[in-house]
Amino acid sequence: MPRFTRRQVLGTTAGLALASLDRPSGRAATLEGPRQEDASTPKLCLECGSGPLAAGLPDEAGMRRVKQLGVNHVIGTAGPMPWTEEHLGAMMAAFKKGGLSLGNCMIGGFPKTLFGQPGRDQVRDAITHRGARWSDRSGRRRSR
Question: I need a surface site. Which of 83, 88, 110, 114 has the fewest CB within 10 A?
């Protein structure tokens, strides 16, 4: 009786699996051309800021560079907490003037909360309280 190794068994089953796949019909697939971004497509975003992965700075030249790459949505940071409604509104207006939409702002600057250090509750309360006021004014539903 022949003895099979695991390598032989895996190789044989992989070969059989590949052989059972449907063969292409020889016709080239027809594509409709480049898809345009709309409400049903995912949004391609690039970072716009001073981070190491940023495509550009949040200035006129940086926004022009992001637009030249074919991207309409940016992500970034709004600086240390707490943010104000005026500060976020000014950021959004600046990006809108550059033809971009601010899709996400990453929050940072609260290591006491991240590392469980004393004073973390006060930092957390300041962040959540301001976030609740912002969402109330913008008409968005708060998640709790």
Answer: 114
